[in-house]
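Section 5.1 Outputs to date
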Amino acid sequence: MEKWQQLWKVPGYRWPVLFFAAYLGLGLALYGDYGMSWDEALQRQHGFVSAEYVNQQFHLTDKQYDWRQLHEYMYRYHGVWFTLPMAWLEEAWDLTSFRQQFRMRHLAVFLLYWGAGVVFFRILLRRFANWRWALLGAAFWVLSPRFFAHSFFNPKDLPFLSLFVISTWTLFRLWLRPGIGTALLHALACGMLIGMRIIGVLMPVMTVFLFAADVLVGKSGARPLWWKRIIGLGVFGPMAYWAIVVFWPFLWPDPQLQFLEAFEIMSQYGWGGKVLFQGQFYAGPEIPWYYIPVWIGISTPLLYLLLSFTGVLSLLPRAWQHLRQGSIGIWATAADRKDWANVGLVLAPVLAIIVLESVVYDGWRHLFFVYPSLLYLAVLGTKVVWDWASSRAWWRRGLLAGLSLQGGYLLIWMAVNHPHQNVFFNALAWGNQLGQYDLDYWGNSYKQGFEALAKLDGAPIIKVAYQSYPATLNYEYLHPELRARFELTEDPAQADYFLSDYRVWRLGLNQALNREGPYSGEEVHAIYAGATKILGIYRLRKN
């Protein structure tokens, strides 16, 4: 007890513990506020199909999880690292109602993201050797509106982001201190990552690349001994292979063949929808190359972007100095290595998407996993400015003021617009973005739409037509007594109200903007995220 009391008196221990405890408490209080997103029911199905396959292989129970067979299943190529354990938990806890099943999943997504935040703090603490800089990065992590919301309802991209952070931490441990233990840990992390999404192969590729780059551009004498690097990679390779197979049941019959098949299918993944981007509709193969850079630019807090850019620029003079001295060793310390690695972890996936012309949609959610590295560079940029201003007090005061204003604004914006932080835009996309970009493309706001309509109309039964599929999910997700007051129909002619999240193509968008068709009635309620309307409720006939 005395040991813990002494430890508690240390600010570098006390304040991070309080911060993450408060963040955990906030998540536990808010996770039930978020509605159902488009893919959640399908993701649950993925998990149950794989659970049935595992059960068939090991005869764990007489229960049938699902009637579908995994190797005939349409979505068999999708990783199930997250959805499979969720299926087992659902059965173990006997969660029989739709609402219980997905509240559990929302909580699990948040807890995994929260844990990844702790790991991210540890990465920064090891890099900057100062808890204040690490805690600043943790504050950036929490005060990221879109990611804060996604960390409760996104069962694909946010678990993958969380695992990517964890595997980045294990990568640094292996890279800087290669050995059997660090190799096993990194192999396990990579197995989980690829078992979640096949794009996780970027991490073992980056691992091999960084070891090779260390030979070429790492300063001589600063690298680990060659035999340790050989042992590290020698253990990592086969163990990563083993871990990938373990965490991805689809691979079990023929790991090499099944993996190559999945990689080919997912790398050329077809998508039949359209995106709304800068006021124009684009089919998947037609999306312009600047789609991802623009989305990152308009949906990330501006100060984070500026600071991360500063962090990248700060690395160039040191590299140039080495080159001028005739040395190709552009990194000489563990800090240098981590800084450059995070630059690569941001740029490599973005450039790969652009060069390979891969189909991405729904904003930049497919590349959310690069965001922690962007925040790392933002912390680096902040420290660079702070150190540069050591004899310029007014610069430091300006930096503190900027950080405080940005943090205060984000905190207030997130509180006022709760639980729709996933439709955050920065000042580069100011004003109402309805008709310019995809907005609440997940459809979560239908939950709040139903709740608002129940208060506006006291009728015992309210007939509702809807624009897109997530309305049905959010209807099922409502409290039973509230759900009993609604009757859904796809035909507006049979309904009292029409709910729309504006996830429409050209005809529907023109109707919404011009108040035609089902949008022509009285708008009795609208939900906004900032200045952007994300859901409207329209009266279809007099009550």
